[in-house]
């Protein structure tokens, strides 16, 4: 592995981001890691090594703050090779019961923060004509579950952003991947990482049952964050990493099932789809 690479990881004080930062430092990489609480980040990582670890307090919705963190990283390490947009949280509840402010806030954190980070780091990656951007999405962005409509919308947006970014950046030798995990034991379903609003409305039985099942499953999810972190490190060493990577058996199965259903539906409605075009005159 090329341990001279410099990683920039957001949302690093807990969950997958924290596990990844620890793994990277164990492997000898240099890491700039962001958090809203830098003291919490330092204590969680438990490493005091200014030559390889740069903890940064960053407001990811403030472009100037992000730019300052990028400049600090370059001053400390001289380059940035891998960017991991990991910061984010979950939200479950019915759309009609979620407040507009709550919806806007999760889009700010899950979508616009990632866009802002990419916006500020891209000039350096283009200058290097190399780099790798990993956006942490979710299988919910492709195959949602009842009650997770708004969260799924944020992750679907992040996936679409990553797809088009790959087209834009191909000529610069910059790769992108959206990683879409299913359930991992990262504390995602705890109060720090999940905005949960129990429905008080009649009906919505599927929403209520799904919320109950997910919350009861906290701490026993099948996904291993240590293995996920090792996979992310391996991706960064690949010359041709995948654009989409579903992590976890459940993620793979859900994505495969939906792809099959979509293909079937696409062909079933093919005649209607192409009938919307202007009729071409045949010679």
From TrEMBL:
Against PROSITE patterns, the record matches this protein to: ADH_SHORT
InterPro entries (UniProt xref) = NAD(P)-bd_dom_sf (IPR036291), Sc_DH/Rdtase_CS (IPR020904), SDR_fam (IPR002347), SDR_oxidoreductase (IPR051911)
Its Enzyme Commission number(s) read: 1.1.1.100
- State the organism of origin: Niastella koreensis (strain DSM 17620 / KACC 11465 / NBRC 106392 / GR20-10)
Q: Which family does it belong to?
A: Belongs to the short-chain dehydrogenases/reductases (SDR) family.
Please identify the protein, giving its name as recorded.
Answer: 3-oxoacyl-(Acyl-carrier-protein) reductase
- Indicate whether Oxidoreductase appears among the record's keywords: yes
> One GO MF term, please?
3-oxoacyl-[acyl-carrier-protein] reductase (NADPH) activity
Q: What residue ranges are annotated as transmembrane?
A: none
Q: What class does this enzyme belong to in the EC scheme? A: oxidoreductase
* Keyword annotations from UniProtKB, A to Z: Oxidoreductase
Instruction: Indicate the segments annotated as coiled coil, or none if absent.
Output: none
